[in-house]
Amino acid sequence: MKKIIIALIIIIMTSSSVLAETVVYNPNSKIYHKIYCHSAKICKVCIKIDKQEAIRRGGRACKRCGG
Ligand SMILES: [Zn+2]
């Protein structure tokens, strides 16, 4: 039984780390970019946050990089 619980914890931890993706979010335009996106690199007001958090703030994916 203990082994099953440990296995479940490992599955939860690994799956959540896959979901947690950092994006570069522009709070003015409400558009989020991938870190390597050109628009993200030249953006001065952008902040690095979790993709889920960017979506929660009403963010939309960048048309160039797809967010
Ligand atoms: Zn972009």
SSE topology sketch:
Layout: H1 2-19, E1 22-26, E2 31-33, H2 38-42, E3 47-50, H3 51-56, E4 60-61
Parallel strand pairs: 2-4
Antiparallel strand pairs: 1-2, 1-3
This protein binds zinc ion.
Give average pLDDT, whole number: 91
Q: Helix content range of the residues, please?
A: 40-55%
Order of helices and strands: HEEHEHE
For the secondary structure, the number of strands is 4
**Mind summarizing the main beta sheet?**
4 strands, mixed
Please state the overall shape, judged from the principal axes of the Cα atoms.
elongated
Characterize the structure shown.
By secondary structure, this protein is an alpha+beta fold. It has one domain. It has three helices and four strands, in the order αββαβαβ. The chain has helices at residues 2-19, 38-42, 51-56, and strands spanning 22-26, 31-33, 47-50, 60-61. A hairpin with a 4-residue loop joins strand 1 and strand 2 (31-33). It is elongated. The termini are far apart. Zinc ion is lined by residues 33, 37, 39-40, 62, 64-65. The site of zinc ion has 7 residues, from helix 2.
Provide a quick synopsis of the model:
By secondary structure, this protein is α+β, with helices and mostly antiparallel strands. The chain has helices at residues 2-19, 38-42, 51-56, and strands at 22-26, 31-33, 47-50, 60-61. The longest helix has 18 residues, at 2-19.
